[in-house]
């Protein structure tokens, strides 16, 4: 089975290219990009979210249903699970620790294979639950993720852009704005509470004489960067519902604008970050509102 780039980093390429224009040269130089808005959804695999978009554009390195994984990666006669469409909005949360992803990529703890066989997804899911095996070998039909379908039809798709860390949420989110996880390969509550000390793009933006702002919904994950907890940055954090649309309509968004989703799930305010088992429908609705 081919490698599974993650949707977590789909926006990072555009972000990188945009920032080259935004920060390049003198701050007084005229340029086509004045504001970069960053929205990073949760880490689901490329094939799971966009693989079946290949039906709309054959040039996308997606899936066609011939891809499969054995239930036992060490048994050449093992039964195989073939990749299908039919993913549901609410899916179980598959293994995404560093150890689980190592097994998914290499089929075992032996990481010497080059290229990695990508043959342990069904096996690792089976170790968690027999009910999960089929779920991890499914992707969304384009009609189920209409916002992504529209974006795919209108913009470039980076289908070989991989996660920064083969691991869970926060190490990858730390990478987004700082280029490093600070050595983190898992979500360690004590270290997250202390905050990670590395320099971030926010300081670079400030040093370049430009502005930044973070529009959050319930918990700003950017506060896991210790430097952003300084008193001088308090005004950089604004509730999304109260300020984002108004600032966008008035042309007052900061040069570097970060939008954070609802990471916590409740009946009154369901999560819209796409993290399993959160409802992907709410993530689609959020992006409709955001991009409109």
Query: What order do the strands of the largest sheet run in, or round the barrel if closed?
Result: 1-8-6-7
Can you count the beta strands?
A: 8
Give the SSE order as H and E letters: HEHEEEHHHEHHHHEEHEH
Summarize the biggest pleated sheet: 4 strands, parallel
Helical proportion? 25-40%
The structural domain count equals: 2
Mean pLDDT: 90
Q: What is the number of helices?
A: 11
InterPro entries: Alkaline_phosphatase_core_sf, Phosphoesterase
Protein name: Non-specific phospholipase C2-like
Signal peptide: 1-30
GO biological process, one term: phospholipid catabolic process
Question: What do you see in this structure?
Answer:
With 292 residues, the protein is of the alpha/beta class. The chain has two domains: 7-45 and 147-291, no CATH class; 52-139, no CATH class. The chain has helices at residues 10-23, 46-50, 98-106, 121-128, 133-136, 146-154, 169-178, 189-194, 201-207, 240-249, 280-291, and strands at 36-39, 68-70, 80-82, 84-85, 138-139, 212-216, 237-239, 256-259. A four-stranded parallel sheet has the order 1-8-6-7. Strands 2-3 form a two-stranded antiparallel ribbon. The protein is globular and about 60 Å long.
Descriptive tags:
two-stranded antiparallel ribbon; 292 residues; alpha/beta; 8 strands; 2 domains; disordered N terminus; signal
